[in-house]
Every structure is written in structure tokens, then in C-alpha cells.
Amino acid sequence: MHSEQGNANLANDQNAPKNGEAQSFTDTLFRLQNSEAYSQFCEKVYGRNLCQFNVLDEEQLQHLLSALEIQPSHSVLDIGCGPGFISEYISDVTGAKVTGVDFAGQAMKAARARTMDKANRLQFVEGNLDSLPSVLGQFDFIVSVDTLCFADDLLSCMKQVRSLLKPTGIFAAFCSYTQKEAPLGDLDPRTSRYGQALTQAGFTFQVFGYSLNERIIWEAERTLTFIKEERRARTFFLTD
Fold first, then answer.
1. CB of 128 closer than 8 Å to CB of 104
2. CB count, 10 Å around CB of 52?
3. By residue range, what is the domain housing residue 82?
4. Sheet strands (E) in the chain
5. pLDDT tens-digit series, residues 152-204
6. What is the total count of domains within the chain?
7. pTM of this prediction?
8. 165-178 and 205-209 strand pairing
9. Do 88 and 123 meet the contact criterion of CB atoms below 8 Å apart?
10. How many angstroms separate the most distant Cα atoms in the chain?
11. Beta carbons of 148 and 157 less than 8 angstroms apart
12. What is the CATH number of the domain that holds 228?
């Protein structure tokens, strides 16, 4: 069992985000997970209430699980896990040991308290994408759900991910991006900044498009007017 104090000590002040930023994000997460209206919204729009702070619907979630074929003997790292409900779901349905990492320390503390009876296969650690805790060891799988955009240095982040994977490990990431983030302007995932960073970090990968799913969710959230002027794409990147 991992103690709360032990997990908390894995983070270091040098790489932690500003307290105000972390607290604001944590407050938002707590409001959402304690909101019955948001729970109903997630059930209706995403197909499952995991307090999604992203655009991961049930189709994408099940694609992730089927692609990785996670077994109880496997270890999984969820980078940028937010309140940790997706991490918890992955562990619940697979039996695997899952570690969630997020910069919101209070959210990690709450996630540890919520899943105390599952501490033999779930742990939550404070950290950020620009300095992933190497003391955690290596993992069979690393997943990122709409969080790579928060890395200050995307290539450095990808290199860290690669170092945290076992030799046969797989990285799976869902990313949404605009035409501005695709240098050739054609929304090709392989030439997007995410695809380029993966390639430069030494990964080979497959891509699966989920742009329509994203649009449906934006429409359901009534925020489509916010993005209608920009051409967008959503991609599931799966390394070989």
C-alpha cells in the first residue's frame, strides 16, 4: 500500500506549478465532481460519468481499452489524470495497477482518499508533464487524455514518456488541435505538433480520427460558437 505522505513527497517544489493556478484548477474539479447536474451531463454526453474534464466519450474510452488489452499484471501511468476517475475506471475494469499524476495536489489528495480501499492497485501522485516522477519506475502503458497541450516543452515531455515506458511499452494519447498547430495547415496528425514530437522522440505510431466525436460533444456543451472559426481535428495516437 502506498501511503499518502509517500506519494505526496514524489512531487518537488521546483517543478510544481504556481499555487494559484493549481488551486483554481482543483476548485473547478471539485465543483464538477460534486455537481449532480454535471454527473447527469457526463452520462448523457459522454456515455459514462467519469467527471470528464476533456472530450473523451464512451467510444474513445472503449477503443483505448481494446487497443491496449490491459491485463491485471500490467502497470499503467495516466499523465494529467485530473480527479482520477478515468484512472480508477481503467484499474477497476482491468485489475491493473494504475498510477495517476496531476499537478493539482489537492485533487491528488482527494483521489487517494476516495480510492483508499483500492490502494493496492491505485495511487495518485502530484507532478506535472514537464517533470514526470522518474522514481515511479517504468510502465507497460502510459496514457494521456487531452493533457499533452499542458506541457511547456512537448518534445521533452515525449522523451520523458519514452524513458518511463518498458521496452515493449505503449503510449496512447488523445489530442485535439487546430489548423494553427499543424504546420502544413492540413490537420494531418503526423505533421501536427503532437505527431512531430512523437516522431522526434523516437516513436512510431498509428493514428485514429475522432474529430466528429469532438464536434458532437462541443455541440452538446453549446460551445461550438467558440471554435467554429477554427478548423480542428481530434486524434488518438497509439505507439507501436
1. no
2. 24
3. 4-239
4. 75-79, 97-102, 122-126, 139-145, 165-178, 205-209, 232-239
5. 999 999 999 999 999 999 999 999 888 776 666 678 899 999 999 999 999 99
6. 1
7. 0.84
8. unpaired
9. no
10. 49
11. yes
12. 3.40.50.150
